[in-house]
C-alpha cells in the first residue's frame, strides 16, 4: 500500500528528509519512531501528497504522489500531530463536512459514525460545539474523521495523545481492527509502549534517514542480543546447576533464580525445564525478562553498535538502513511501480484521474465555500459591525445628504449637493468592505496559525478548489453587505425624491465597490501566504489599505465631477490589478507554500551583499558575460512592465484627447501672456535671453520626480506607477487637443514644445518607471525557484541600472528643453503674430 524509495525533501537550504525508503504492506502496521526534528511529519506529509518530494518517489494506494496527488489524498486518512478542528462547528457538522468532501454517501456515513460513537464516548457531545470538547474528545473526533471514508492507507501522528487510558485502548483496538481488515497503517508516535503493542514493524528515523527497520523482537535481538529468560525455583539454585545444559549462556543468578540467553527459546526452554524437573527441583516460573524498547531506541539514536557481540546479525525482519540488499536500500518491488505507471497513464493533465468531472469539482468547491460562509456568519466579531453598518450607515448618509443639500441650496449651489449623493453612496458601500481584509486574514492565516487547515489540505481537493472556495466565501459576505447598503441608501433617496435613477452612476458605484472587494480579498490572501500569524498579516495588510484609500479619493473625485470616461480607465487598471492579485494568490495558495514556506529574516549585510552581486552579475540564472548585458538584461526583464506603461499611457492620451474643455486660444494671446507668467519677452528670447529655468534644475526636478514616484509605487504595490502615465499622457493629450481645436497653428506649436526634448525624456522616464512598476509588482508575481528577497534584490538592482541608463538621456533632454525647445516654439508662434 505504501512504497517509498529515496524520498528527499529540502526546504531552501534545510534538508528535512534524506533518502527515506519505506514499505507498508496491506494489513500491516508500521511505527515510525524518531526524535523531534527527525523528519517524521515531513515524511508523512509527502506520503499524504501534501508536499512534493525534492527527489525520490512514493506510491501510495497504487498512485504516485507526484503525478496523482488528488487520487492519493482520496485514498489516505490523515491524522496530524494536532487534531485541527473547527471549533464553531458541532461534532456532527464536522464529520458530515469531511464525509461530504470524501464523497461518502450519507447512509454509509451514518452507519460508520454509529458504529464508533458509543465506543469512543462521543454520542452525548455529538451535537455540541467542538469548542466545548475536552482535548481527549477532540482527539477522538479527529481520529474518527480520519477513519470515516475507510481509506486503504491510514497515516497517524500521535493518535492517542491527550486520551485517557480507556479511550487510548479503544483507539488502539480501532487501529488494530482497521489493519486486520487489510488496510495499511503508518503510525508516528513517541509512545514506545504503543508502538510495541501495535506495530508489526518499527522504523527509526533520525536526521532524515531511517537508521534501522524491523519487528520489535528483531530489533531487540539485533541491539541487545538474544532474549533473556528467568528460571525461578522453589529451592536453592545450586541444586539446578548440574541439570542445566553445558555451555548455557548464564547472564546472572541469585539464591533461587537463574537468567540466561536463549538463541532458540522454542527448542532450548522445554529441554531446560524438563531437565530441572527430572531432578525433582520445583519450578515456580520460566518467563522472558522484559527488555524495554526504549533502550534499543536510545542506543540507535546515539549510534552505538549492537550491545552483544553474539547477537544475531539481524533477526527476522531486522534491516539496517545502509547496505541492505532488499527493499531498504534497493529498488522497490516492481508491481507497485508498474501499477502506478498504469494509473498515471490514465490520468489527465495536472494529475487528474480519468474519472474527474466538472460536477465533482464544483461539489468539492461548494463544500469549502459553504463551510466557510457558515463559519463567518457564526462569528459575532465579524457580523456585529457588518450588521450595524448595514442598518445604520445608509440612514446616516441619507441624513447627511439632505443636510448638505439644504446647506448648499442657500448659496444657489444645488449642483454641488447633487454631486455629493454618489460620494456618500461610495462611502456607505466602502466601510463594510474594510471587513474584506479581516475575513481572509482570519480564514487563511488564522487557520494556518491555529493549525486547523491541515485536515482540509489532506482532503481530495485541488489547490484551485480550495482557493476559489475559501476566497469566494471571504468575498461574498462583506461584498453583499456593501452592495446591499448602497442599494438601501439609493432606494431611500429615490423614495424621498432626493435623487433620480442614473444608470451610469449606479453601474460605476457597483463596479468600484466590487473591484475594490476583489482586490482587497485577493491581496489579503497573498498577504496570508507570506505570514505565519494574524498579527504579522495585519501589519502587511496596511500595504493594501494605502493604495485602496488613494484610489477611493481619486474615484470619489471623478464621481463628483461626473468624469465617467476617466473612471472607466481607473476601473480597467483596477481590474488588471485584481487579475494580478488573483493570479498571485493561486500561485501562492498551495499546499507546498502553506506547509513549507520559509520567511526571510532581516539580514542587512546579506541583503547588501546580494544587491551588489545582483548589480554586478545580474540574474544568477543568466549571469552577465558582456558589458552590453548590463543594459540589455535589465531592459528585457522590465519589458513587460514597459509595455504595460506604454499601453496605459496611450489610454491616458486618448482620454485627454477626447475630453477637452471649451477654451479658445490664439498665438497672439499666448505671446502677450508670457511676461506676466515670468518668462522673457519674445524679443528678448530672439536676442538670446534665457528662460528662468536651467538644465541642471530641470534635470534634478525630473530625477526627483522619478525617485518619489518609485517610492510611492513600492508602497502602493505599483498601483501609483500604473496611474502615473495615465495622468501624464492624459494631460498632454488634453493640452494638444485644446491647442489644435483653438488653432491648428497652436497645435503644431504644442508639438514643437514637447517633441524636441520629449523624444529623450519620455523614453528615459518610461524606463525608470517600468523598473519601479516591476519592483512594486514583484511581491504579487508567482515565486518561482527564488525567494521573495532574492527577486526584490534583483528588481532593485535592475531599477538602479535603468536609472543610470536614463540619466544621460535626462540631462540631454533638460539641455534641449532650455536651449532648443523655447526658441522653436516662439519662432513658430512669432511667424503668425507679426
UniProtKB/TrEMBL annotation:
InterPro entries listed in its UniProt record: AAA+_ATPase, ABC_transporter-like_ATP-bd, ABC_transporter-like_CS, ABC_transporter_ATP-binding, P-loop_NTPase, SpoIIM-like
Family indicated by similarity: Belongs to the ABC transporter superfamily.
Protein's name in the database: ABC transporter ATP-binding protein NatA
Region spans: Disordered: 304-332
PANTHER family membership: ABC TRANSPORTER ATP-BINDING PROTEIN, ABC TRANSPORTER ATP-BINDING PROTEIN NATA
ABC transporter domain span: 2-232
Pfam families: ABC_tran, SpoIIM
Low complexity: bias regions: 323-332
GO MF annotations in UniProt: ATP binding; ATP hydrolysis activity
Keywords, ordered alphabetically: ATP-binding, Membrane, Nucleotide-binding, Transmembrane, Transmembrane helix, Transport
Transmembrane segments: 380-400, 420-441, 472-495, 507-527, 539-561, 567-589, 639-660, 706-736, 748-773, 793-816
The UniProt record lists the keyword Zinc: no
PROSITE patterns found in the cross-reference section: ABC_TRANSPORTER_1, ABC_TRANSPORTER_2
Organism: Candidatus Thermoflexus japonica
Amino acid at each position: 500500500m505504501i512504497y517509498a524509495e529515496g524520498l528527499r525533501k529540502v526546504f531552501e537550504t534545510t534538508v528535512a528528509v534524506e533518502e527515506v525508503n519505506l514499505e507498508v504492506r496491506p494489513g500491516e502496521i508500521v511505527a515510525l519512531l524518531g526524535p523531534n526534528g527527525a523528519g517524521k511529519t515531513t515524511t508523512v506529509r509527502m506520503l499524504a501528497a501534501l508536499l512534493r518530494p525534492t527527489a525520490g518517489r512514493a506510491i501510495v494506494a497504487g498512485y504516485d504522489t507526484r503525478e496523482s496527488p488528488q487520487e492519493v489524498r482520496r485514498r489516505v486518512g490523515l491524522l496530524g500531530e494536532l487534531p485541527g478542528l473547527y471549533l464553531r462547528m458541532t461534532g456532527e457538522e464536522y464529520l458530515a463536512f469531511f464525509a461530504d468532501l470524501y464523497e461518502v454517501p450519507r447512509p454509509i456515513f451514518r452507519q460508520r459514525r454509529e458504529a464508533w460513537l458509543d465506543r469512543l464516548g462521543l454520542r452525548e457531545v455529538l451535537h455540541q460545539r467542538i469548542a466545548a470538547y475536552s482535548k481527549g474528545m477532540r482527539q477522538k473526533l479527529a481520529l474518527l474523521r480520519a477513519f470515516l471514508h475507510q481509506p486503504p492507507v491510514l497515516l497517524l501522528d500521535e493518535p492517542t495523545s491527550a486520551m485517557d487510558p480507556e479511550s487510548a485502548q479503544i483507539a488502539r483496538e480501532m487501529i488494530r481492527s482497521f489493519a486486520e481488515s487489510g488496510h495499511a497503517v503508518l503510525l508516528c508516535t513517541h509512545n514506545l509502549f504503543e508502538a510495541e503493542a501495535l506495530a508489526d514493524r518499527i522504523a527509526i528515523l533520525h536526521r532524515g534517514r531511517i537508521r534501522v527497520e524491523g519487528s520489535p523482537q528483531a530489533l531487540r535481538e539485533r541491539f541487545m542480543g538474544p532474549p533473556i529468560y528467568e528460571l525461578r525455583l522453589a529451592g536453592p539454585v545450586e541444586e539446578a546447576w548440574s541439570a542445566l545444559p553445558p555451555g548455557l549462556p548464564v547472564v546472572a543468578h541469585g539464591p533461587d533464580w537463574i537468567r540466561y540467553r536463549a538463541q532458540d527459546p522454542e527448542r532450548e526452554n522445554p529441554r531446560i525445564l524438563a531437565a530441572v524437573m527430572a531432578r525433582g527441583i520445583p519450578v515456580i516460573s520460566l518467563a522472558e525478562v522484559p527488555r524495554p524498547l526504549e533502550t534499543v531506541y536510545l542506543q540507535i539514536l546515539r549510534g552505538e553498535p549492537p550491545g552483544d557481540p553474539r547477537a544475531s546479525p539481524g533477526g527476522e525482519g531486522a534491516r539496517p538502513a545502509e547496505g541492505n540488499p532488499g527493499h531498504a536500500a534497493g529498488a522497490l518491488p516492481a508491481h507497485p511501480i508498474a501499477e502506478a505507471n498504469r494509473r498515471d497513464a490514465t490520468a489527465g493533465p495536472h494529475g487528474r484521474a480519468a474519472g474527474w468531472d466538472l460536477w465533482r469539482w464544483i461539489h468539492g468547491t461548494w463544500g469549502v465555500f459553504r463551510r466557510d460562509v457558515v463559519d463567518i456568519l457564526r462569528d459575532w466579531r465579524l457580523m456585529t459591525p457588518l450588521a450595524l453598518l448595514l442598518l445604520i450607515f445608509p440612514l446616516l448618509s441619507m441624513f447627511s445628504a439632505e443636510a448638505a443639500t439644504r446647506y448648499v441650496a442657500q448659496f444657489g449651489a444645488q449642483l454641488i449637493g447633487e454631486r455629493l449623493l454618489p460620494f456618500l453612496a461610495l462611502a456607505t458601500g466602502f466601510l463594510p468592505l474594510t471587513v474584506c481584509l479581516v475575513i481572509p486574514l482570519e480564514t487563511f492565516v488564522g487557520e494556518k496559525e491555529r493549525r486547523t487547515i491541515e485536515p482540509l489540505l489532506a482532503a481530495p481537493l485541488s489547490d484551485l478548489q480550495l482557493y476559489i472556495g475559501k476566497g469566494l466565501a471571504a468575498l461574498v459576505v462583506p461584498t453583499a453587505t456593501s452592495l446591499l447598503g448602497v442599494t438601501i441608501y439609493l432606494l431611500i433617496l429615490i423614495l424621498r425624491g432626493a435623487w433620480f435613477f442614473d444608470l451610469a452612476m449606479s453601474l460605476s458605484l457597483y463596479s468600484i465597490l466590487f473591484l475594490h472587494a476583489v482586490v482587497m480579498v485577493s491581496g489579503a490572501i497573498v498577504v496570508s501566504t507570506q505570514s505565519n500569524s494574524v498579527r504579522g498579516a495585519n501589519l502587511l495588510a496596511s500595504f493594501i489599505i494605502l493604495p485602496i484609500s488613494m484610489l477611493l479619493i481619486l474615484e470619489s473625485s471623478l464621481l463628483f465631477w461626473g468624469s465617467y470616461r476617466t473612471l472607466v480607465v481607473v476601473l480597467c487598471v483596477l481590474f488588471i490589478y485584481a487579475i494580478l492579485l488573483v493570479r498571485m494568490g493561486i500561485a501562492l495558495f498551495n499546499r507546498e507554500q502553506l506547509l513549507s514556506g520559509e520567511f526571510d529574516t532581516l539580514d542587512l549585510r546579506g541583503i547588501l551583499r546580494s544587491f551588489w552581486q545582483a548589480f554586478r552579475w545580474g540574474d544568477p540564472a543568466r549571469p552577465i558575460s558582456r558589458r552590453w548585458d548590463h543594459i540589455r538584461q535589465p531592459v528585457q526583464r522590465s519589458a513587460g512592465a514597459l509595455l504595460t506603461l506604454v499601453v496605459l499611457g496611450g489610454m491616458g492620451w486618448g482620454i485627454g484627447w477626447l475630453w477637452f474643455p471649451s477654451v479658445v486660444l490664439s498665438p497672439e494671446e499666448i505671446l502677450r501672456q508670457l511676461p506676466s507668467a515670468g518668462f522673457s519677452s519674445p524679443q528678448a528670447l530672439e536676442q538670446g535671453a534665457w528662460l528662468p529655468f536651467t538644465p541642471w534644475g530641470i534635470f534634478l526636478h525630473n530625477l526627483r520626480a522619478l525617485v518619489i514616484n518609485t517610492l510611492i509605487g513600492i508602497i502602493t504595490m505599483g498601483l501609483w506607477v500604473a496611474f502615473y502615465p495615465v495622468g501624464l499622457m492624459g494631460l498632454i493629450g488634453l493640452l494638444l487637443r485644446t491647442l489644435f481645436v483653438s488653432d491648428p497653428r497652436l497645435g503644431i506649436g504644442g508639438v514643437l514644445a514637447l517633441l524636441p526634448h520629449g523624444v529623450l525624456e519620455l523614453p528615459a522616464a518610461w524606463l525608470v518607471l517600468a523598473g519601479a512598476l516591476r519592483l512594486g509588482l514583484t511581491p504579487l508575481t508567482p515565486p518561482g525557484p527564488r525567494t521573495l528577497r532574492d527577486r526584490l534584490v534583483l528588481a532593485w538592482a535592475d531599477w538602479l541600472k535603468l536609472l543610470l541608463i536614463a540619466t544621460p538621456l535626462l540631462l540631454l533632454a533638460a539641455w534641449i528643453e532650455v536651449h532648443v525647445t523655447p526658441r522653436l516654439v516662439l519662432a513658430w508662434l512669432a511667424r503668425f503674430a507679426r
